[in-house]
Write a structure and sequence with these properties.
single chain; alpha/beta; Nucleotidyltransferase, domain 5; 5 strands
Length: 192
């Protein structure tokens, strides 16, 4: 599913799920407190067997996506710590190259742990990829037919949507001692 960014979008957020075989990407348009899907998919690197050429391809393809969709920000999933050190190293390199591509286009970067993304979208840090994808489908009104074949794309959408939720959180970074304290500090935002 691809829709162009529109002049009504206040900003465009790109999401990336780093991978060395399939790298997920997604773009959402944000207008005020509303988000909509612009595009999502995967960069398929399975036919490329040289790891250095693969990294070059990631750089080139991410730059191409940035040039096409002109995101204002990038939300990227942080690699999770696994038992296989070689897999972590490869994943970290892929993430670094995607970040370098965004830096080369002056796109600000925000990194989110998988647990944080799952918590933001489902309220459950141990939610499955399918649960996250289904919640995103419902929240963004995506038809079943438009859902991607690979979960890497919905993982990228999850990173972008998590960033949207973090940025649109009116209480982010503010500490409150009670509900009365919240009401007092937000009286100009609370409709009576």
């Amino acid at each position: 599913m691809q829709q162009p960014a529109t002049p009504t979008d206040d900003r465009v957020i790109m999401g990336i799920d780093p991978g060395t075989n399939l790298m997920g990407y997604a773009f959402i348009g944000v207008n005020g407190n509303r988000a909509r899907l612009i595009a999502m998919g995967v960069i398929d690197l399975r036919k490329c067997h040289d790891s250095y050429i693969k990294l070059g391809e990631i750089f080139t393809r991410v730059q191409g996506l940035i040039n096409s969709f002109l995101p204002d920000e990038l939300a990227i999933e942080a690699p999770f710590f696994g038992k296989n050190v070689q897999s972590m190293l490869k994943l970290g390199r892929a993430q670094g190259v995607a970040i370098a591509a965004a830096i080369s286009r002056d796109v600000p970067i925000h990194e989110y742990a998988p647990l944080k993304i799952k918590m933001a979208i489902t309220g459950n840090g141990s939610a499955s990829k399918h649960q996250v994808a289904e919640m995103l489908r419902r929240m963004l009104n995506i038809s079943n037919e438009d859902m991607p074949r690979f979960m890497d794309a919905t993982d990228a959408l999850g990173a972008a949507f998590c960033h949207y939720l973090q940025r649109n959180n009116p209480v982010q970074g503010v500490k409150y001692s009670s509900w009365a304290d919240f009401a007092r500090k937000n009286s100009d935002k609370i409709k009576q």
